[in-house]
Amino acid sequence: MPKDYSRTRRVGEQIQREIAQLVQQEIKDPRIGLVTISGVKLSRDMSHANIFFTVFDESHPIQETLKVLEGAAGFLRHELAKRMQLRIVPHIHFKYDESISYGNELSALINKAMDMENPDNRMDGSHADNEKSHDEQD
Prior knowledge:
Elements: H1 7-26, E1 35-42, E2 48-55, H2 62-71, H3 73-83, E3 91-96, H4 99-117, H5 126-137
Parallel strand pairs: 2-3
Antiparallel strand pairs: 1-2
């Protein structure tokens, strides 16, 4: 087994699945919105877990969601201890994962640049005409 896929990584993936399920099913706070657990990074000694989340409903402020999740960290840790057989249950710290919003911004910028560079190059049916003429040649 490669060193990169260590016990720490496997435990982190299991924690991610468990926390995602707990947040979805057990936290009933209306301030939280639609939250996805995007990753977990465990310390080497597995005593601390940084849990990265994203918010898909932009009507819920990220800071408010972070407050709710941090407030529920003790409950989530307790539930995690029940579900997983770990000698040390890590202390949970939530962090907002900016990679998805950053990726969306980059994608929008690329689309805008492509539209500015080539306004005629849109999928407005010209592709379908090319397929017809290609089929007619066969």
